Dioxygenase (Pseudoclavibacter caeni), 273 residues
Amino acid sequence: MYELHDIEERLHPSERMPVLFVGHGSPMNAIEDNIYSRTWASLGRELPHPQAIIVMSAHWLTRGGTSITDAPRNRVIYDFGGFPEPLYHVRYDTAGDHDVARIAADRLVDWMQSYEIALDRQWGLDHGTWSVLRWLAPHPDVPVLQISIDYSLPLPRLHELFGRLRRLRDRGVLFIGSGNIVHALRSMRGDGAVWDWAREFDEVAEAAIRERDLGTLLDPFRVGTAARLAVPTDDHYRPMIAAMALLHPGEELRFFNESIDLGAISMRSFITA
């Protein structure tokens, strides 16, 4: 793995890049002109130019180890079914970068003895990544990589693991967590109403994020029934924890897309201010 002097040669010192957590919601947000896609596009025009983009998506889950994409070109993964045909023709042409993958792996590899960090040439970009990036970075001219979410790690350990990548923000790497804080697909509704428990947990999470209350964020089910209903499985919640791990003490956050879609999908997102 690369040593520090190699990192300095490949990723140059930079202004501190932002961290984002993006509630990505429906895959249709990739092609629809709506409040979410318009906000992503507007935000993208404000972002500093990175040397690389690394995304932690809820749609790449591994168990017992963490993987990093390592293909020269990223294939687009249509990891959904039953949507309109145009969604399956979306292209998002991006390069990977072996050096950046190795650098990120080097930051993680010594985290825990015998914990596996793997470079993966098969995955690509799933819709948790490209549905958002095609608005945030519509003409990508830097490498894009994904890092998987280890679904077997307790949340405190996941937070500890991703914290090891924090200093790459000072070397031109922009990080994005892509998921949803409230993600209860079986409770979606089309009448415009929002479930009380969805709103309750979204507000609890907002306060905990704002106050850096890791006790609540890393043990969300202590909130009670609202958490159990809002986070029936925590696959979409975990990218938010990964994004929180990348924050420096005292960093300010700005929330955006602060709404709940289809009654049970929180689109709440944040970016370092």
Summary: Residues 4 and 155 are 28 Å apart (CA to CA). DSSP finds nine helices and 14 strands in the chain. The first strand starts at residue 19 and ends at 23. The mean pLDDT is 96.
